[in-house]
Amino acid sequence: MELIIGKTQRSMVTLVSARLFLYVGDSLPLRKLSSLSSITGIHNSVRFQRSNDSNSGPLTLASLGFKPKVETTKRNKSNKLGQVNVAVEISKTKIKPVKSSGSKNEVKKFLEIEAAPFAAKTFSELDLSPLIIERLEREGFTVPTDVQSTAIPTITKNHDVVIQSYTGSGKTLAYLLPILSEVGPLKKKISNGDESEKKTGIEAVIVAPSRELGMQIVREVEKLFGPYDKKKVQQLVGGANRSRQEEALKKNKPAIVVGTPGRIAEISAAGKLHTHGCRFLVLDEVDELLSFNFREDMHRILEHVGRRSGADTSSSSKSALARWAERQIIMVSATVPFSVIRAARSWGRDPLLVRAKSVVPLESVPPGPVSSSSTTCVSTSNSMTQGAIESLPPVLKHYYCVTKPQHKVDTLRRCVHALNAKCVIAFMNHNKQLKDVVFKLEARGLKAVELHGDLSKLARSTTLKKFKDGEVRVLVTNELSARGLDVSECDLVVNLDLPTDSIHYAHRAGRTGRLGRKGTVVTICEEPEVFVVKKLQRQLGIPICACVFTEGKLIVSKEEQDHEPEQEVE
Ligand SMILES: Nc1ncnc2c1ncn2[C@@H]1O[C@H](COP(=O)(O)OP(=O)(O)OP(=O)(O)O)[C@@H](O)[C@H]1O
């Protein structure tokens, strides 16, 4: 599709693209950038079509299979969607406008997906490649989760997306499956049989903030690829031998690479990673990837992945935005603070916010947390805490127990026994104390092991394997294990130190109760810290009850039960 933009807009686009895209949060450049785009209407008035897009025409929510009366991507004077109170409900495949109960100024632009095609009952309803369906069945995956049912058709239709859904709800397969349907050995066969269309370069780059999470994603892809094709995915995680990774890239010509920002950026800067023709860029745990630590590496990745080489970034016939739009960007996390929404708006092409059973144009998301039933803004002052709302599985039980610092480890031991927990993750804030806690637990007869970033890559993977295999009962760790780590058997998370904020609480807590399983979170704290627990409770919208452990039982404190008698918890 030809792109026509005015001279002023073009110079602004160049200006925008020249900015460091990683200025997020409340930093000035991105604020400028988003206000710039809203002034110029760049995101809304310019449409792009990727070369491999078989569906001609603009990519809108209509192309998801609905016939909306509302054009979600246009926003001009004649289309007042961005200014008026319009909400749209989808029932089956029909959309009907409904009156908003909000104030006049409130932007109510959302699509509530109630039924088909998102409520798929089987994977075969989701237009995935037959080979993938076969492999999923082999792995025992038959029913897609809610977020998978929603995300898969949306990604398949080439939309840039932010996927937000609570921890352990299956977000990894939600983005992997539509990607694997398009690239690599399981992809759909090209119907006209034109083999020249076959690509051999890297077609998808998946970025994760830790080696553990990166390797976990690699294993998930390898499982689906099977033993013969497993080299078609290559890990590029830090701590591993870089020259071996470079050799593997050359020799195996993987279709997909998964890695940590530092190592991907490093190999890319050395000219050994050719990702300009890449079709998919996934940022898993996007809010973490946007943190200060990863700033420079992420800048390089965003600038290079999926951007054609040889293109003049300043004055080519295609604008910077157009080239940038050639890749599809998928951003994923259980916690999506508004800084992510803002960044995604500037990187994506009419990006959508995908949650279980709802798809919302990102443009319509007002500052503040997004509730599952609407785009209503809940009033809280801190955008960090806003991102944590609805990030936790509803089945989780949360408690706190007050104790003295010198009794924390003993309280942990009594907690493990009282709940008869088999697979426990205990979080602390400082590496130095982990060893001491492990020592004390072992001395009290609980098999424990420490995991933190100061260990070698080999030690980290061996430790994790032992824990996953059930050889140790308690993993004592720090924030390293809070993001994305999937140990389905984990039935108890204990905070031996308070997390820094509600987002960190949410990710730590989310290591248990995965995919509908039971899970308990216990925060062991000192008396003066109780107000922090109460604050977390308010910010997350969850009850965190005071408890004690006596005679091998968890007893919920009386005051927490609205004057009901003391209660034992199973
Ligand atoms: N459709 C499915 N059927 C059965 N199991 C599934 C399905 N989808 C995912 N799983 C399993 O559920 C577990 C949790 O999935 P996953 O790690 O993708 O969750 P997540 O939403 O990414 O969590 P987090 O936010 O903590 O990273 C994994 O063990 C995964 O293999």
UniProtKB/TrEMBL annotation:
What are the residue boundaries of the Helicase ATP-binding domain, all occurrences included?
Answer: 152-354
| Reaction equation(s) it catalyzes | ATP + H2O = ADP + phosphate + H(+)
SMART domains the record matches: DEXDc, HELICc
Listed A to Z, the keywords are: ATP-binding, Helicase, Hydrolase, Nucleotide-binding
Name of protein: RNA helicase
- Motif range (Q motif): 121-149
| Residue intervals passing through the bilayer | none
Record-annotated Helicase C-terminal domain positions? 411-555
Q: Which EC class is the enzyme in? A: hydrolase
Q: Name one GO molecular function term.
A: nucleic acid binding
UniProt keyword Nucleus, yes or no? no
Using the record's annotation, list all stretches that form the DEAD-box RNA helicase Q domain. Answer: 121-149
| Assigned EC number | 3.6.4.13
**One of the Pfam families matching this protein, by short name:** Helicase_C
Q: Which SUPFAM superfamilies match?
A: P-loop containing nucleoside triphosphate hydrolases (SSF52540)
